[in-house]
Predict the 3D structure of the following.
Amino acid sequence: MTDYGRELQFGVFVTPSPDLLDNSYAIAEIADEKLDFIGVQDHPYQKHFFEAWAFMATLLARTERVRVVPDVANLPLHNPAVLAKTAASLDVISGGRVELALGAGAFWDAIAAMGGPRRTPGEAAQALRDAVQVTRLMWSGERSVKYDGDIYRLHGVHPGPQPAHEMQIWLGVAGPKLLRYLGGHADGWLPSNSYYPPEALPGMNEQIDRGATEAGRDPASIVRAYNVFGEISERESGEPFRGTVSQWTDDLTALAVDTGMDTFIFGAPDDDLTQTRRFAEEVAPAVRAAVAQSRR
């Protein structure tokens, strides 16, 4: 059992679809009132999606409090120096309401079709490590920075603007080496239950903790976020992330106190507004109360 004692955070996954635009605005309104995060997937090659950063900028402009995070940014189709500048710019404009989550890439045929690189797993991992270093330098406030990475390089660029707050870098990674790298160099982890079920999380968290310890960092300083796709219903279910508010409360409470996850971003079927409202108004407060009781 691992509970890092971190404050719980809750969010909602919003699909950047033109067909769901009014619904997305309604979800953003709920999130701004009751949740901590809006997560937006970044798949530029998907013809039915908006460009993620344009969509995130719009959501930030329509809200006042909630934070927005790319879930996760598609690194192969974004230059990391420009991406860092975009994120920092939106952070300043929004008053410190952006975090940056990076992914090494997937769907390589689609990426290549859009003019992006087709990377091997090793190249994708190195590109992600380079991107973290490039991002830190672009946010550094230094007059001029250089970086000679294997994939990405900086040659005397003048970085800026600096983010309005200490913006975090989360990584959507899974392999042991990248998890250990995350523990030593990044600020958060963002997997999804559709790829990594609850039983896989403890072993993965152990790798993050190992990397943090080896780097002299406190493992509890690292955000453990989890995209949870499922359905809230009136009927009990034997499946995780499907069932009643009480079942959801038990599932997420167990993930927090037994597995160490602290941030839950809910993805409802078809971005259902009623489901989102139930998560924000019923599930999230119940989980906060149950975790607080467990910790006492």
Residues 20 and 172 are 25 Å apart (CA to CA). The chain is about 40% helix and 15% strand. The longest helix spans residues 273-295.
